[in-house]
Design a protein that fits this description.
- The radius of gyration is 30 Å and the shape is globular.
- The longest helix has 26 residues.
- It contains 22 helices and 33 strands.
- It has three domains: 177 residues, NAD(P)-binding Rossmann-like Domain (Rossmann fold, 3-Layer(aba) Sandwich), CATH 3.40.50; 290 residues, Dihydrodipicolinate Reductase, domain 2 (2-Layer Sandwich), CATH 3.30.360; 243 residues, Rossmann fold (3-Layer(aba) Sandwich), CATH 3.40.50.
- With 791 residues, it is an alpha/beta fold.
- The strands form seven sheets. Strands 14-17-13-12-11-7-10-9-8-18 form a ten-stranded mixed sheet, covered by helices on one side. An eight-stranded mixed sheet has the order 21-22-33-32-29-23-24-26.
- The structure holds 6-O-phosphono-beta-D-glucopyranose.
- 6-O-phosphono-beta-D-glucopyranose binds next to helix 11.
């Protein structure tokens, strides 16, 4: 039976690469499995069990195996612990006791512990493997390294594997990595880059064990098989809400050194719940087993998700956590940790199918029960006057029940007032005998229930995928970075926020109930139990928005968040005034990363911004196709335009690509933009121009040394940047200085040096282009955050 599962898996799973590579990936022979962190918690709980199951499933195949538990401790002390763990593995349910005993004995004989600390240790391991292959005349199929160690050790271990443990002769190398893969976008990028120097992408298997849960991996096939019933209702017109929930009763005692640095958002929401969200909302691929298609469709959803800010999350911390931290981290009694152990986050996918559908992701420790599920709750448009118990009056919902809770087994439940789902997977069955339990407000008998015939552990499942070289259920680099791009701004905006303290378990009562209002989420009750010593000062206390002068122009300064808030409010005020007076607002926006926070603020808070009467122009553009991530328009589109209701004909990207080439003088792109500007605006004047300043003092794409004077006549020009991409199109000082209002936005500690210099230099636009910004009739306001101002 286990063998059939694996064979089935291989046929279901599209293996990447060429036909030869695919053949190699499955070529029978000897397989060496090395678990680093082989006596650790995860190995003990799940990994050895998973590998034993793999071994049992392969017992009658042409493959042979060696298993190595690797660790930093010397073999003498670690060996007894190691064998205790191995002896405790249990028999798969479908094996007879006798057969299992034989297999277990073989498994123990094939396993050994090795200290793997230095490069010599790794070289020793490689030598041992090669010797064994030679002595026993075996062909090598591949080597599988499972890194169940803290992430900071990954790069070093990957390098050691790369330099000393690569198999020869076409055998495969697979390296499995456990989360955390970074703690934010920059660290995830750095880790991906480091690993990329030692391992090829196809050699890395990043595990998210939720993708190995039977119900989770059925989501896409279920959506496909039931396409006919789902297509008409799986959209904003019918879905009331999507909930993705992981509730846990345990605390994090014993894991605090790790957990306190991560918290629930990084531990569960960024990975497990986000993956479920992707499977629920992505367009089901034509071919469920095509890695490329699945990845592509996932990335599309990532790019349609509305940005997450402070108002899209609430956080909590169980009361005993503080004392646990003090104890495990050796801290004094006045130490306060702000790490959340509970979070509820409200997400929205801003595309035609899901626009406006609230998607709630929530997880926490020390809650009242252990349960994991995703629920699609549909709108019920039937009003029941009298017969409340009739089936048509009851909630309409589909529940993907991952496990635990009142039901205790994994299942997919479809309420009977929706449709009867088809059931084509031979590994699943319909449950017809309904225990007397209810699931999310409905008795089991009101659902069609499907459950796997045999329950399998997520890790065991994923281990069999790795062995089969099947990459569908692992996290690709792009997927990982897209997820961190979503979560990093939220994590930064929550920095310094105090979580609501909750007692834990049933005593939490309604304290963690949340209210969803439009795009925002808040706790439903205002009661906050906070012990007096939890009340601290946030770093922004005592500093409000400050007004002053900078380079003899007006300046507004505040901490980043308040500054962005203020700029957004000023922008809206200017827009409303222009629309009142002239019926239209012409806004020119710059690229770069500084304005992104402003765009998010506008999207999430300024619902009454008069987008319908706003024309959006570009301050500058890089000479790359607009579809590339480097393009300023591309970023503006992703962070702002696609999320607001602005008419297409009010959007004016710079024509950097004409005649299928980029920024060629003769194509006249700059002139074209200038003409459009002249045609639509009053005397080519913008109402508002938003600028940033680069480290070298450049603004728009006017760089030091640009022939500023030569540009005097034109409004738009092709310019050169010292950094790539070198060619740019930019508004000139002419165009900028005719504006009614110019805002110069400068943020971050990195800009402090620049601000200090700028406060001293005289106007010299050739050397410091930003000093050339001097509106002739309008006003200039500097928006500088305290980090940039004070350093
Ligand atoms: C892990 C988290 O990834 O997932 C844990 O680190 C969490 O904090 C666990 O408890 C939940 O997994 P499961 O399979 O028990 O739902």
């Amino acid at each position: 039976m286990l063998v059939t599962v694996l064979v089935l898996l291989v046929t279901l799973c599209a293996l990447g690469g060429t036909a030869e590579e695919r053949q190699e990936a499955q070529r029978p022979g000897h397989v060496s499995v090395v678990i680093l962190g082989g006596t650790g918690d995860l190995a003990k709980k799940y990994l050895w069990q998973g590998f034993f199951q793999l071994y049992a499933s392969q017992a009658s195949s042409a493959n042979t195996f060696s298993f190595y538990g690797g660790g930093l401790s010397p073999a003498d002390s670690a060996k007894p612990v190691f064998f205790e763990i191995l002896k405790a593995v249990s028999c798969p349910k479908d094996l007879s006791q006798e057969r299992c005993a034989v297999l277990k004995e073989q498994f123990l004989r094939l396993s050994q512990y090795r200290q793997l600390k230095t490069l010599e240790d790794y070289q020793g391991l490689a030598k041992h493997v090669e010797q064994q292959l030679q002595e026993e005349g075996m062909t090598e199929a591949g080597r599988l390294f499972y890194l169940s160690v803290p992430a900071f050790a990954y790069a070093d271990i990957a390098e050691k594997i790369n330099s000393s443990c690569r198999p020869a002769g076409g055998a495969w190398l697979r390296v499995v990595l456990e989360k955390p893969f970074g703690h934010d976008l920059p660290s995830a990028q750095a880790l991906a880059a480091q690993l990329g120097t030692a391992l090829k992408d196809e050699e890395m298997y990043r595990i998210d064990h939720y993708l190995g849960k039977q119900v989770v991996s059925r989501i896409l096939p279920f959506r496909k098989e039931n396409k006919d019933s789902l297509d008409p209702i799986w959209n904003k017109h019918h879905i009331e809400r999507i909930e993705i929930v992981l509730k846990e009763t345990l605390d994090v005692k014993g894991r605090i050194p790790f957990y306190d640095q991560y918290g629930v958002i990084r531990d569960v929401l960024q990975n497990h719940l986000t993956e479920v969200l992707m499977l629920l909302t992505m367009t089901p691929p034509v071919n469920v087993s095509s890695i490329q298609e699945v990845q592509q469709n996932k990335l599309e959803i990532f790019s349609s998700l509305l940005p997450l800010g402070k108002n899209q999350a609430v956080i909590g911390q169980y009361q005993a956590y503080k004392a646990e931290v003090q104890k495990e981290l050796n801290k004094t009694q006045d130490h306060v940790s702000l790490t959340p152990t509970f979070a509820a986050v409200l997400a929205h996918v801003a595309d035609a199918r899901y626009e406006g559908v609230p998607i709630l992701l929530t997880s926490g420790k020390m809650l009242d029960e252990r349960v994991g599920y995703a629920r699609i709750l549909f709108k019920n448009d039937i009003f029941c006057l009298q017969s409340q118990d009739s089936v048509h009056c009851k909630p309409k919902q589909i529940v993907f029940h991952f496990g635990h809770g009142s039901l205790q087994y994994p299942a997919i439940l479809v309420s009977k007032n929706l449709f009867k789902p088809v059931q084509t997977d031979a590994g699943w069955k319909e449950v017809t005998e309904h225990a007397n339990v209810s699931v999310l407000g409905l008795p089991l008998s009101d659902y069609y229930v499907q459950t796997p015939k045999v329950q399998r552990e997520a890790y065991a499942e994923l281990i069999s995928h790795i062995f089969a070289g099947c990459k569908n259920n692992f996290i690709s680099t792009e997927n990982l970075l897209a997820s961190w791009s979503l979560w990093t701004p939220l994590l930064s905006s929550l920095k310094g926020s105090f979580p609501r303290v909750y007692p834990g378990g049933a005593d939490n009562g309604g304290m963690l109930d949340v209210q969803l209002k439009g795009n925002e989420i808040s706790f439903n009750s205002k009661v906050v139990i906070i012990s007096p010593d939890q009340v601290g000062r946030s770093s922004t206390d005592g500093f409000q928005v400050m007004q002053g002068k900078f380079r003899s122009a007006e300046m507004v300064s505040a901490w980043a968040e308040e500054l962005v808030e203020r700029l957004a409010a000023d922008l809206q005020e200017a827009a409303e005034a222009a629309v009142r007076k002239e019926g239209v607002f012409h806004l020119a926006l710059s690229g770069g990363s500084t304005p992104i926070a402003l765009f998010h603020r506008l999207v999430l808070h300024h619902f009454s911004f008069p987008w319908r009467d706003t024309h959006v122009w570009m301050v500058d553009e890089r000479c790359v196709p607009l579809t590339e991530a480097e393009s300023n328009f591309h970023s503006l589109h992703d962070h702002l335009l696609q999320h607001v209701r602005i008419p297409y004909y009010n959007i004016h990207p710079m024509p950097v690509q004409l005649n299928q080439r980029l920024c060629v003088e003769e194509d006249g792109g700059a002139l074209l933009y200038e003409k459009e500007l002249g045609k639509l605006t009053n005397g080519s004047s913008f109402h508002f121009v938003l600028l940033g300043v680069g480290y070298d003092g450049h603004t728009a794409s006017l760089f030091p040394g640009s022939k500023v004077k030569e540009l005097r006549q034109s409004m738009v020009a092709l310019t050169e940047s010292p950094i790539k991409p070198h060619q740019r199109m930019s508004l000139t000082f002419n165009a900028i200085n005719q504006a009614h209002r110019v805002a110069l936005m400068v943020m971050g500690k990195g800009k402090h040096e620049l601000i200090t210099q700028l406060s001293r230099v005289k106007d010299d636009p050739e050397k410091w282009p930003v000093t050339g910004v001097k509106p002739t009739h309008g006003t200039l306001i500097w928006y500088i955050d305290y980090d940039a101002l004070i350093g």
